[in-house]
Specification:
Oligomer: heterotrimer
Largest sheet of chain B: 4 strands, parallel
Number of strands of chain B: 8
Largest interface: A-B, 41 and 48 residues
Structural class of chain B: alpha/beta
Number of strands of chain C: 5
Helix content of chain C: 25-40%
Distance between the termini of chain C: 63 Å
Number of helices of chain B: 13
CATH topology of the largest domain in chain B: Rossmann fold
Chains: A mainly alpha (135), B alpha/beta (296), C alpha+beta (251)
Strand order of the largest sheet of chain B: 2-1-3-4
Order of helices and strands of chain B: EHEHEHHEHHEHEHHEHHEHH
Strand order of the largest sheet of chain C: 2-1-5-3-4
Number of domains of chain B: 2
Number of helices of chain C: 10
CATH architecture of the largest domain in chain B: 3-Layer(aba) Sandwich
């Protein structure tokens, strides 16, 4: 899939927001792919972590908006402990999530969770799910 | 020397089996503990946004309670609570600016600067108590049981709160071997079960949990041993769903390590609350002659 | 229109202090409560006013003081005005109450979670507790509910007057007072132990133990009833623990 690199679709505001919220220097990423190789969720991602970092470096807001990566990420931190540049990738994913959530948009609706599920789920599932998916 | 005990919300209801068996182990081992008289939910996950301080308030409050109680160490049983409390503690220790802001915001609480130590039961036993001492108290070794210790993520990552190196941990193996069980190591023992994705992308969480079970049983494990109630849900309760969706026909018994430890220490089976585990779990232990009946 | 007698004095003897009602400055006697002060200023309460006695929760007021960043709260009927108080009334704050058939519930924590899943959005920021005019430990009862302790939540939330200020400040958008009411109802109906002696008495009544005596009384005429009443045996005020009536038939 070709990526269009042009100053016209490089969103500097997005990059500085992600940098501010994550506190991470994602420019350091040299695309080694260790994160993608370690991620347990790749089967369910439309864009792997390595590529997300590349899109972020290019400031490609539209392409990033299409990625389901931050929403399928389970914050397991394997990518972070193995990244040779020491980038805290889970924080980058959190920043991408927060950018959406802070627009007051929930990814899951607490009132619409199946009642039978609520009966069975441990409380930590609901607490952590709401933290990651609701604004 | 007494330590504080922080239960976490789930341990009072769905994971009662983890709590009651763990407290029975503490008694059997002679470890003095005191549950925090006042505590709140820690938040289950540590907020990863740099500008987000409000989500640090909940775990920091609990750490202040530990100090108020008069102890310098707090014991956790739930891995997610361990991770959240430990990381919040590190933040308060190391980041002066955030520490000041958080303390200023919580104007109704005394200031806190990371004076407390957060431990999980596993690393507490290894570092503070000692496996040798545990072994001395084992009266019913878990003989003939091929266990697969499953770490999950939150005990081992990130590095600053890891109880063992994330890529080659040994603490859980040491624990199970001390109890006399056979250990089956499997590569996916440190892979995530899907955690909160059970709400967001339940199919994805189901698949990676299934992969973990398949890896463990494929290498000869008869049962998985866990430390976290959410792992227990993803790997355990969702096995019914796995049976309808995947090539998965034999149920795998799962136990909290404290339940097995309690049995090994001679604690009566009632204290382990096996009725909260999958149905086959108790039968599995019976077949191994490991259930000790309470003596009058 | 009421007629006012000519010799009613309207001279105000108390010192007047400035307060701000919805941004507008008024001079009011310093001895008045917020509610009385607003009425003094000419406002008429048609909402946000109830018992005027500090227990109904209708008149919650939020105010600020000059040079002070803190948010202060009080009940308008109980709080005395202070100079340069900057007032706003909160007659009603929207908070959805879940609908349920109480008789279908059993008193389990999961029922609370199913009706109010947003409970888990609480981040323990404590804004609710700080804003409670009744000093209820709101954060603590929410924490109790998260860990399944309905009884503790019922006990901690006992003094709640349903004013809604907690919900107005909650960043998790939780309606704490509705959840607490559910907890108190569940605790009272399903969790508190039943009085055994009450159940025994009801059973005795149903079995007709007192039927004869009651029927006898019902069949009496008024004069006879009066005579019987005046001749009844009463436990003396100074009787000891071992006193028992001569007629032991109904014991």
């Amino acid at each position: 899939m070709p990526i269009n690199i042009s100053s016209r679709n490089s969103d500097d505001r997005l990059k500085s927001k992600v940098h501010e919220i994550s506190g991470e220097q994602f420019q350091k990423c040299y695309q080694c792919g260790t994160c993608s190789g370690s991620c347990p969720m790749t089967e369910h991602l439309n864009v792997f972590p390595r590529r997300v970092m590349a899109l972020l470096q290019l400031g490609d807001k539209d392409a990033l908006a299409e990625c389901n990566t931050p929403w399928v990420c389970a914050s397991c931190h394997v990518c972070m402990v193995r990244c040779p540049r020491g980038i805290d990738i889970p924080r980058v994913m959190e920043a991408l999530r927060q950018l959406k959530l802070r627009e007051n948009v929930n990814q899951i609706e607490p009132s619409q969770i199946d009642k039978k599920e609520i009966e069975k789920l441990p409380q930590i599932a609901l607490v952590s799910g709401f933290r990651k998916f609701t604004s | 020397m007494k330590i504080s005990y922080y239960p976490g919300c789930t341990l009072k209801t769905k994971a009662k089996n983890l709590e009651v068996s763990a407290l029975a182990c503490l008694d059997a081992l002679g470890i003095e503990y005191e549950e925090l008289p006042r505590w709140n939910c820690c938040g289950a996950v540590y907020s990863l946004a740099d500008d987000d301080l409000i989500h640090m308030i909940a775990p920091v409050r609990d750490l202040i309670r530990v100090r108020e109680q008069g102890h310098d160490t707090v014991l956790t049983l739930c891995s997610m609570c361990y991770n959240t409390l430990a990381r919040a503690n590190e933040l308060m220790k190391n980041d002066e600016e955030k520490r000041n802001t958080i303390n200023m915001f919580m104007d109704e609480e005394p200031d806190y600067a990371g004076e407390v130590r957060v431990v999980h039961f596993l690393d507490y036993l290894r570092d503070d108590y000692g496996w040798d001492k545990v072994k001395e108290k084992v009266t019913v070794p878990l003989a003939g049981m091929k266990t697969a210790p499953y770490y999950g993520c939150t005990l081992l990552r990130p590095g600053d709160v890891a109880i063992d190196p994330p890529d080659h941990p040994t603490v859980f193996q040491e624990c199970m071997e001390t109890l006399g069980a056979e250990v089956v190591n499997f590569p996916m023992s440190t892979q995530c079960c899907g955690t909160y994705q059970v709400l967001g992308n339940p199919d994805a969480a189901l698949k990676i949990s299934y992969d973990i079970l398949r890896d463990a049983t494929g290498r000869g494990a008869e049962a998985l041993v866990l430390t976290c109630p959410l792992c227990d849900y993803n790997l355990g309760r969702r096995q019914d769903e796995m049976m309808t969706r995947y090539d998965f026909s034999t149920e795998v018994p799962l136990f909290y390590f404290t339940q097995l430890m309690a049995l090994a220490l001679g604690v009566p089976a009632e204290k382990c609350h096996f009725e909260l585990n999958r149905e086959i779990s108790e039968g599995f232990l019976k077949a191994k002659n490991l259930l000790v009946k309470a003596s009058a | 229109m009421s007629t006012v007698s000519e010799d009613v004095t309207t001279e105000v003897k108390a010192k007047l202090i400035p307060i701000f009602i919805m941004g507008k400055k008024y001079e009011v006697p310093e001895t008045l409560t917020i509610m009385k002060a607003m009425e003094y200023a000419g406002y008429k309460y048609i909402r946000g006013c109830g018992c005027r006695g500090g227990v109904c929760g209708a008149c919650s007021t939020v105010y600020r003081k000059p040079g002070d960043y803190k948010i202060y709260v009080g009940l308008a009927c109980q709080t005395v005005v202070e100079p340069e108080m900057y007032l706003t009334q909160i007659p009603f704050y929207p908070a959805m109450r879940a609908t349920y058939n109480f008789h279908e519930l059993e008193g389990t924590p999961e029922e609370v979670y199913q009706l109010y899943p947003e409970l888990f959005r609480c981040v323990a920021c404590n804004a609710c507790t700080k804003v409670c005019p009744m000093d209820v430990q709101v954060m603590d009862y929410i924490a109790a509910l998260k860990r399944g302790d309905i009884k503790a939540a019922a006990e901690i939330s006992f003094d709640c007057i349903q004013c809604g200020l907690c919900a107005s400040r909650c960043m998790g958008e939780v309606a704490q007072y509705h959840i607490a009411q559910l907890a108190r109802r569940l605790n009272g109906a399903y969790l508190t132990p039943r009085a055994e002696h009450l159940a025994t008495m009801v059973a005795n009544i149903d079995a007709g133990r007192f039927a004869d005596g009651l029927n006898e009384l019902l069949a009496m005429d008024v004069d006879n009833l009066k005579k019987t009443y005046q001749a009844r045996e009463m436990e003396p005020a100074t009787a000891g623990e071992d006193w028992s009536p001569k007629e032991a038939k109904y014991l």
